[in-house]
Amino acid sequence: MKTMSLRHRNGMEHLTMRVLVRSLSLFMHCRCDSIEGLPEEPIIFCCNHYEMFGPIAAVISLPVQFRFLVNEDILKPGENMEELLTGVRKAMLRLNEKQIRRLYNIVSPRAERVFRQLDPIPMTQGWASVISEMQRATDEMVKGNNIVIFPECGTPTYSIGSVTEFRQGFAIIGEFYRKRTGKDALFYPTYIDKWEKQIHFGELIPYGRGPAREECMKVSQKLYHSMTTMAEKYGHAPEEYEDEEALEEGITSVHG
Amino acid sequence: MPQELIDILLRTAPDTDISKVTAESRLKADLGLTSLDFIMIMFEIQDKYDVTFTGEEAFETVGDVIRFLQEKTGN
């Protein structure tokens, strides 16, 4: 399987992106458990978010061709800092408000460009758009692309492994995929271990043949169980995040 | 309210008290639908009426859904 390719409009942008990805790889690249023996069918990799580390680590480390779904806020300059900030809160606390705002102005538009270059499928936070977004993801699967999704929806606890509860509706992709291909979609629990810089995989979870609602709930529950099992096995509690209250105060001061 | 929509509501969100549902009922605040309920309703609507959602639709109330269906199906 091929690694993810970058979408590019011109040579300079492409070069910039390659340099950026290479730079990120230096300190965010993860080793992956073997994926030998995976079926040839497109697979839905369901990853833990772990701040911004998860998405970036997935993009630069997963050894497969894929399209990924991303919160559309990350694609909006000026509105993407809440998403980006969560990964660097500790560092932010050492900066004053003026410095942070200056940093926002530098990082925000560039982050938007970086993510757009990766050609993600944007996800809104509204209910109404889930169906069309999952259909777009299905279109990609029918073309042969794997999908990477981050189904967590809970507030990060920063406890061991930091896997929070999972959404359920995204699994409706299993219905769409079956209608288009007659096959069962396969969901792959993908645990990104930030501290060991390793990506682990659980057992493939097929979308079953029961009613859509039950199947969505079943897939979500099985994924969550598999991810928490891996989190307990491989997770590491980051000591520097123990004083969560102080960190939240830091965020509040930033956002006024 | 169209009987077919009532049937979909009952199938996808069986806890809904249909006797209290009006066109003005808000899907989330009044009927207490969860995101999964809503996705299932849309999935059934798409399946039954062969309509396509673009993601631009704003469904706040039951009436919004009815109007959407009327526009798409011409009924």
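qc> The mean pLDDT of chain A is 79.
qc> done
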